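Researcher: Here's my situation. A collaborator sent me these components and asked whether they could plausibly form a single complex. I don't have experimental data yet, so a predicted model of the whole assembly would be a useful starting point for our discussion.
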Amino acid sequence: MTAYKAAQLDTVKPSRIARAADDEVGGNGDLRMGELSDLLGYALKRAQLKVFDDFLRCVSSLHLTPAQFSVLLLMEQNPGRNQTEIANALGILRPNFVAMLDGLESRELCMRVRSAHDRRSHSLVLTDRGRATLARAKKLVATKHEARLNEVLGPANRAALLQMLTTIAEDF
Amino acid sequence: MTAYKAAQLDTVKPSRIARAADDEVGGNGDLRMGELSDLLGYALKRAQLKVFDDFLRCVSSLHLTPAQFSVLLLMEQNPGRNQTEIANALGILRPNFVAMLDGLESRELCMRVRSAHDRRSHSLVLTDRGRATLARAKKLVATKHEARLNEVLGPANRAALLQMLTTIAEDF
DNA sequence: TATTGTTATACTCTATAACTATA
DNA sequence: TATAGTTATAGAGTATAACAATA
């Protein structure tokens, strides 16, 4: 393998770190978490739930889930692509993408447009409302959600974390 | 906030990193992922799915899910605790814990024992088979699953990642 | 009255097979 | 025949209300 340079961590919430070493992490009254404190998958899951919760909270005024946000984002970045392409890019199965699009389309955030070249497929395009909503969502995500993560982790560590997660997602 | 020392990352899969900068991450043919490549929540979710998949694969011979593994682990670390306590510690709702325990108990990995002090509650205890299965699971997780993560990330970064995820789960 | 385990239930996600209309 | 979108369906995971036994 190729190694990252050692990521030297210190001084963040030493009390927490101490408690982790004590094997009494987690705020569960006083249950011992044992090897669970060292399981990357367990930490990953708990962190993911927290982050998604915060995302929903930060963007609640627009009524967008993380999944819906990602779909709108991809439509903006890839105008004219069809359902299969957008769904595949996000790891959403085509059958499950239908109801999701129905929801976004009924809120007039996007449209399905029959392709002229291949009348089987639907080109997906953002509406003006969709573009505006996405723009507002991006601003909320950046200034509230990601900003909070930056506060907790620090910018350099946030970047390191993103890098490692991406490595796992792609090269693991 | 208190900062981690900068976690300096480099040289892991430069081609992937370059593609990330190119905004064409993800193996989606050629769709642009846009700001998604920078969303911590998105990276977190994808990494979590990969890691859980690998966990299942590594431990498939024992037919244990991550959730089941975590329950057995907590029973071992906290013998005699009741359902509510174990479930709470793992963020599992008590009603949903019932079917889960039914499954583990029917495989004779654990037992519900009516408490003498409070006849409403069930003390949870591992059976010998449960202890043996857990021991084998731990070995598989350590030598196959976590070992692979260590290869991909390097030990220092694996530790840094765990630390940051725990920080998010607890202090975010 | 409160709590433990439980049932029932519902809603979201995810996954697969099969249909239709086009190609 | 193959593909795009769709329907139907089934299985996990998660959430809440309410009940019986016990405290």
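Model: Some features of this prediction you could bring to your collaborator: The longest strand of chain B covers residues 110-114. The radius of gyration of chain B is 20 Å.
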